[in-house]
Amino acid sequence: MTARLPKLVAFDLDYTLWDLWIDTHVTGPFHRNKNTANEVLDKYNEPIKFYKDVPQILNRLRGTQGQVKVAACSRTDAPRLARQALGLLLVPPETKDGELRPAIDFFDHLEIYPGSKLTHFRKIHEATGIPYSEMLFFDDETRNREVEALGVTFRLVRRGVNDSEFEKGLEAWRKKQLDHQ
Ligand SMILES: [Mg+2]
Q: Which Pfam family would be a valid example here (predicted)?
C-alpha cells in the first residue's frame, strides 16, 4: 500500500459487512461455537458472518498501524445486537501463526444508532478532528449518499464489500483528492 490512503475508512454494517439486517433477520442473544472464525449464531442458530473478503480488508487496514482509522456507521434499530455481533465475531489472521481477534478490536469508532448518517459522520469528525475529505465510506443504500454533502467519499456497494469494491472506493477517494488540488 504505497499510494496515499484516506485517514478514515467507514463501513455500514447490514448488507455492507454482513448479509442480513441485524434488527430483523436474527434474534438475540448471540453466541459462538467455541473459537469458530467469522461465525456467530443467533438464538435459533442462524449464522451471522462477514462477507468473504471482509476479514482480509480489516486485517489490511489494521496493518497500517493506525494510519487509517476504521469506523462502523450503522442506522440499525438494534445497536446492542450489532455491537454484540462485532464483539463475538472472530477475524482470522492473515498468517497461520497469527491469532483470531474479535472484530470489534479492528474498529476505532462505532457510530451505531438510527437516524441520518450525517449525524454519524459529524460525530466522528468532532471526536477525531479528521477532515471529511479524508473519509471514505462504504454503504449499500443510496439514501446514505447524503454524507457526500459533508465531503465524505461515498462508495455504493450492492452485495457487500469485497476486495474489488474496496479498491474502487480507494480509487474514487484518490481521484477526488486530485480533482481538488
Ligand atoms: Mg446497509
A: Acid_PPase
